[in-house]
Amino acid sequence: MAGLSGAARARSASPGSPPVLDGSFLLSPLGWLMGVQAVLGLLVWSLIAATTYHLHAAYGWVMFVSLFFWILTLLFFVIYLLQLHQKFYMIPWPLLLMIYNAVATVLYITAFVTCAAAVQPTSWRQWDYNRRAAASFFACVTMITYGVSTFFSFRAWKGLGSNAATSQVTDHA
C-alpha cells in the first residue's frame, strides 16, 4: 500500500469504487507466504488426487484439509490483493487471519501426520508411493508456512513491531 497515493487509497477504500490492485502486497511477507501456501497446497492435493486415494480413508482427510485451505488461501489472497479488506473495515482482518492461520497449522499437522503414516513403501503401485511420499513432504512444508504465517499474523494482531510514536503518527495522519 506504500506505492499508492492518498487519493488512490481513499478511492480503493470507498464502498462504490472498483477494487484497486495492490502490487506491494505481493512483496510483503503476508503476500509472499500466501503465494507459497497456494503453490504448496496445490502440490499436496494434486499429488494425492493423482493416486488411488479413494481406496484409503486417511487420504480423504488429507484431500479435505489441503483442498479446503487451498481454496480459502486463494480467497484471502484475492481479498488482500484487491484491497477488499479495506472496504469491509468492520471485519477484524488481523484477528481473522491469525485464527485462520492457526487453525490451518493445526489441521495441516494432522494431515501431514496422517499422510506420512499412511505411506506404504510396499505399495503395489510404485508411482502411488512416490506421489504420496512427495505429498507428505509438501504437507510438512505447507504446515511450516502456515505456522510462520500464524506468527506474523499474531504480531500484526497485537501490533508488535511498532512503538507508541509510530502508531500515534499513523493514527492521526
From TrEMBL:
It is found in: Apical cell membrane; Myelin membrane. One of its GO terms (cellular component) is myelin sheath. It is a multi-pass membrane protein. Residues 25-158 form the MARVEL domain. The keyword Cell membrane applies. InterPro entries: MAL, Marvel, MARVEL-CKLF_proteins. Keywords: Cell membrane, Membrane, Transmembrane, Transmembrane helix. GO terms for molecular function: structural constituent of myelin sheath. PROSITE patterns: MARVEL (PS51225). The keyword Transmembrane applies. Its main location: membrane. One of its GO terms (biological process) is myelination. The chain crosses the membrane at residues 30-53, 59-82, 94-119, 134-154. Belongs to the MAL family. Forms oligomers. This is Plasmolipin. It comes from Chloebia gouldiae.
